[in-house]
Amino acid sequence: MSDYNFKRHLPLSLRLWHWFNAVVLLGLLGTVLLRKTFLSWRTNSALIEAQFAEAGITVPPELAKKVAVAIRNPLWDWHVYLGFALLALYLARILVAVFVEKECVYLRVLKSAVQIKSLPPGKKPRALHYTLVKAGYAAFYFVTALMLITGLLLNFKSEFGIAKHLIETIKETHEFMMWFFVVFIGGHLVGVVLAETRGDQGIVSNMINGGPKNS
Description:
The chain has eight helices and no strands. By secondary structure, it is mostly helical. The termini are close together. The model has no long low-confidence stretch (mean pLDDT 92).
């Protein structure tokens, strides 16, 4: 950690986890985006009523909503499947950290933050940048855990016997945390591009081929 280098050898297990996790997260965000736009039951139920009205057929709003929700449900099934895939990947990430990397990201951030005070002024900006990036990853794992917990509570609300007034709060929390991932993914992509153009070239290729083992 002394040089605060972002480039290091990445084991195959971590690389596979990274790319699978990226696909699953993008899939989850995609299902939410479609649910809020093209497959919104409000939009589609109004469209159903309008189309039938043009044909001279009156469709009750309740029936139009039922049909619109039925159209959307298969997409939401995929959201649940991808949610369980994210849970499996989260557990896999813990195993990689314990048995392969043998480190805890939270301890790494804490250690890095403590060391900054004893560094000479010239090295502090690099160390601070490194610490903030790693803190972002730590926040990512924390929010992912909360997202998984709230998702499980919503999916098994009947089995857990959760009160109705709590379900709405859990749902709102679950949906609000989605924006963290939107910001994180956007920031991650921008950060990688900046790193590749400002002295940390090779981060992307390292995530593909692992990089030299002595890095």
